[in-house]
Specification:
The chain is mainly alpha-helical. The protein has 8 helices and no strands. Helix 1 crosses helix 4 and helix 1 packs across helix 5.
């Protein structure tokens, strides 16, 4: 381990941040981006995150947008936000914590847990920047995912 978190946790943070960046850039839901990338491309991003992280994120995102043939969408949670918008790095951290919790609780490989997280109802709640859910305690977000609803 180097720094405050393990190497693979940092790779997951980058992977989730890149998904967020691509979603914002293409105006798509995060689930749509994760599904368009698919397990194979997500695994590649996760495995090579330390290399991709040293490159310009805009260049990396363009490459994956082209490879996955991600089209422009109409989902723009940035434009509809009434409050300060968290950065793609902030949201990468939120999703990283959720993915780690899902992987641990369901005994899943990280890439499967990534797809689980982004395809859950919790993802839509996290991506609503007009609510406070995305900055809730990580355990509360995971618990909502695990029980299948918000209390």
């Amino acid at each position: 381990m180097t720094g405050r978190e393990g190497h693979k946790e940092n790779d997951l943070f980058f992977t989730c941040s890149l998904i967020e960046y691509i979603a914002r850039k293409t105006k798509n839901k995060r689930s749509d981006v994760a599904n368009a990338l698919g397990k194979e491309k997500i695994e590649k991003i996760y495995e090579l995150a330390d290399v991709y992280h040293s490159d310009n994120i805009d260049t990396v995102s363009e490459d994956f947008i082209k490879k996955a043939q991600i089209q422009k969408g109409e989902f723009d949670n940035i434009a509809t936000a009434r409050y300060a918008v968290p950065s793609h790095w902030d949201m990468g951290k939120v999703y990283k914590r959720l993915v780690l919790g899902i992987a641990r609780e369901k005994n899943l490989p990280i890439t499967d847990a990534i797809l689980e997280a982004y395809n859950s109802f919790v993802s839509e709640k996290i991506d609503d920047y007009n609510s406070s859910f995305y900055y809730d305690a990580p355990q509360n977000i995971l618990n909502a995912y695990l029980v299948g609803y918000l209390e």
